[in-house]
Amino acid sequence: METLEAIRGRKSIRAYLDKPVPKEIIAQVLEASRWAPSGVNRQQWRVTVVTGERCKTLAKRLVERAREREPNTPGSGAGGPPDVSRRMVALRADLTRIAQSLGQSLWEFVVLGSYRLYDAPVVVVVSHPGRRGGDIPQFVTTMLVAAHDLGLGTCWLGYPLSYSDLIRQVLEIPDEEQIGAVVALGYPDPDSPANAYRSPRDELEDFVRWVGYDQD
Ligand SMILES: Cc1cc2nc3c(=O)[nH]c(=O)nc-3n(C[C@H](O)[C@H](O)[C@H](O)COP(=O)(O)O)c2cc1C
């Protein structure tokens, strides 16, 4: 796949096939991800790849915790600059429509779904030793694109981070590492309406300022 095609084609996958992902394929994804840029080449990332019973246990424990604490649905407190809150409200409406088509509420589909790791066969937890987590987004973004290139689907999951203590406990992540990102990974279910959705983007003229290009 061409690089630009992989970047444009990646999207969040919220329904997965019940099909294991070979370790070698995940190693290929991580092999590409390790080339992500990092400040002063710190490479402050550690990766825990989880599948099988431990992955199911993690999802089950996260769902139990979410049911006790009832976290908010995405976009419910949409604030900030008007264009940002407009996008959040739009995503909330789109995800609500998908939830309805699945016979679920937004809370069940996205909130519980996120804690359930969307039933993905693999979850990847990216942590960082020390206080600085600045290298994590580059690593994870590279990983999502590489996974897509290899025919895998992913969803970056912010919700489970609120129960990092539980993730640390279940996966035995060392105390000196901070958990920075959780990513569901697996083969996309091509028949699920959840995966038919493509979130929109602003046009270039909405967010780019060209300087020195219009000199007559
Ligand atoms: C830091 C971060 C946290 C996210 N957390 C969640 C989440 O908990 N649940 C979820 O379904 N999607 C989550 N997403 C996915 C975003 O909703 C998604 O990236 C955004 O709507 C753009 O859509 P796309 O990824 O399909 O292009 C998260 C994305 C990022 C970058």
In brief, what are we looking at here?
By secondary structure, this protein is α+β, with helices and mostly antiparallel strands. It is built from eight helices and four strands.
Report on this model:
There is one protein chain. By secondary structure, the chain is an alpha+beta fold. It has one domain (3-69, 79-197): NADH Oxidase. 43% of the residues lie in helices and 13% in strands. The protein has helices spanning 3-9, 23-33, 52-69, 82-101, 106-115, 136-149, 164-171, 204-207, and strands at residues 46-51, 122-129, 153-157, 177-186. Strands 1-2-4-3 form a 4-stranded antiparallel beta sheet, with helices on both faces. α3 packs antiparallel against α7 (164-171). The model has no long low-confidence stretch (mean pLDDT 95). Bound molecules: flavin mononucleotide. Flavin mononucleotide binds at residues 11-12, 14, 91, 110, 114, 155-159, 199.
SS class: alpha+beta
Rg is: 18 Å
Strand order of the largest sheet: 1-2-4-3
Number of discrete helical segments: 8
- Second-tier CATH architecture: 3-Layer(aba) Sandwich
| CATH T-level fold name | NADH Oxidase
Describe this protein with a few key phrases:
216 residues, alpha+beta, NADH Oxidase, four-stranded antiparallel β-sheet, 8 helices, binds flavin mononucleotide
Helix-strand layout with pairing:
Layout: H1 3-9, H2 23-33, E1 46-51, H3 52-69, H4 82-101, H5 106-115, E2 122-129, H6 136-149, E3 153-157, H7 164-171, E4 177-186, H8 204-207
The chain binds flavin mononucleotide.
